[in-house]
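Q: How would the structure tokens look for this protein?
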Amino acid sequence: MPRRTLRPDYSISRLILGGWQFSPGHHPDGYDLDEVLETLVEVADLGVTTFDCADIYEGVEELYGRFLARWKTTSAHRPIQIHTKFVPDLQALATLTKADVARVVDRSLRRLGVDRLDLVQFFWWDAQTPGFEQTGVWLDELRSAGKIRHLAVTNLSVERCRRLRDAGVELVSDQVQYSVLDRRPERTLVPYAQEEKMALLCYGGLAGGFLTDRWLGKPEPEGLRLNRSLVKYRLIIDELGGWEGHQRLLSTLRGIADEQGVDIAAVAVRFVLDQPGVAAVITGASAAHQVASTLRAFEVELTDADRARISEAVGGGYGPPGDVYDLEGDRTGRHGRIMKYGLQSGEAATAPRAR
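A: Here is the predicted structure in token form.
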């Protein structure tokens, strides 16, 4: 498994397993705990040693804590990296205190069963609400105190990254949406990240599954029950011309995949991995064989002609309008309206039940 060094003391696998698929929105009826833990062990055995979660993914930090405990009982000595997030509720931003920040970080430590968090990715819902820089400084103080190894952000624009930098907060990475459908990071974030030695950790490379063979030649998913993740990516598809255009893209990806002897997912992931500044792609999976299939992305070699074909299939340019997270950050727009802004205080359903 290829790895990428983010700092001299810290490296990650270039494929990261996301944890959102273990949250209630994807498992409303619960899951078999032993099966999931065994899947996580199998994924780590494949060389995917970096796992992503968040304080707002209900039950996932606890799940990863159990996984870490089980991993220690195996014969493997490969270190595991757990990336979590710090995402205070929208309504709590104006009154957030230093004690609140410490409490949430301590809670993540307890849930994961570790003495130090490997990477904490900070997000702030509203750029106009005061306290953003101060909260970043408080997190940095917890890093200095040994509770956090490295600080990062997620879904933040260049302007907000600069504000934290100017406050003295060093950022290791920015986790953003980046795919053949959505190349908004290239507008301003990619050059800035390279200049600041800030890695990009990219989610949405498979657009929730829409960039896989499963949807090639399939009718538009009207009337289907789509989870919030799929709704989010379906909105991105709509921004680029809708389902007919998406089928043209999938056909193009399938043609390239046939030439390489892989599936569409491997080509889609390889495209993102090849972009400047991208350290890793985050992908979800419920079984180890799905991860093994995605790992074939590391066998793919895209040519300039391949990349040109892909770009032409989506109409050229950067995809959706605006900068990183601009559409999603508009709470009155259709992208923003599907977001949940109060997950810390229980806006979502209860955590999935382990059977």
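The first strand starts at residue 3 and ends at 7.

DSSP finds twelve helices and ten strands in the chain.

Upvote if useful.
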